[in-house]
Specification:
Elements lengths: L1 H13 L4 H12 L4 H11 L3 H10 L11 E6 L2 H5 L2 H11 L14 E6 L11 E3 L2 E3 L4 H14 L1
Parallel strand pairs: 1-2
Antiparallel strand pairs: 1-3, 3-4
Helix pairs in contact: 1-2, 6-7
């Protein structure tokens, strides 16, 4: 891990980066922000770890826990909510056996994210499955996508 972090540090210094760029590089490399990486950068740059965590928890693009290989994001905005997004979310949690207060399966294959708005109200309810937008999502369509992903695992 240290070798990887050293490369990120060199890039940071070369391009006069900031905390956000460091966190983006860590997230891109590891898929989340490991606490050890924050501690390492905190010591190397003499920046309190709390500053890194403050930025990481402010922006939704950063994740402090490992995420699944397949990311399913479901919109909970008004239009999507009215059209049944909560049923989709509830069914995903049951189908994928994700326990309360978690968002990732124990085998790290799936993460279900709930977001406030995707910005595609005209095709509500909307789910994004591994960066592919699916509008007018129904329970049947959602389960078909999940089965397809499970099969490819």
């Amino acid at each position: 891990m240290e070798e990887t972090l050293q490369k990120i540090l060199e890039e940071y210094r070369k391009n006069e980066g900031n905390i956000v760029t460091i966190l983006q590089d860590i997230e891109k490399t590891f898929g989340y922000i490991p606490e050890e990486a924050v501690t390492w950068f905190s010591k190397k740059l003499d920046i309190p770890a709390s500053r890194f965590f403050g930025v990481a928890t402010f922006y939704s693009q950063f994740h402090l826990k490992p995420r699944g290989r397949n990311i399913i994001t479901v919109c909970r905005g008004t239009a999507c909510h009215v059209k049944g997004s909560e049923r989709l979310i509830n069914r995903l949690f049951i189908e994928l056996d994700i326990t309360d207060n978690e968002d990732t399966t124990s085998d790290q294959k799936f993460t279900v994210e709930k977001v406030n708005c995707i910005g595609a109200c005209g095709i509500a309810p909307v789910a994004v499955v591994n960066h592919e937008v699916h509008g007018k999502m129904s329970l049947d369509k959602m389960m078909k996508e999940v089965r397809k992903l499970k099969k490819s695992e």
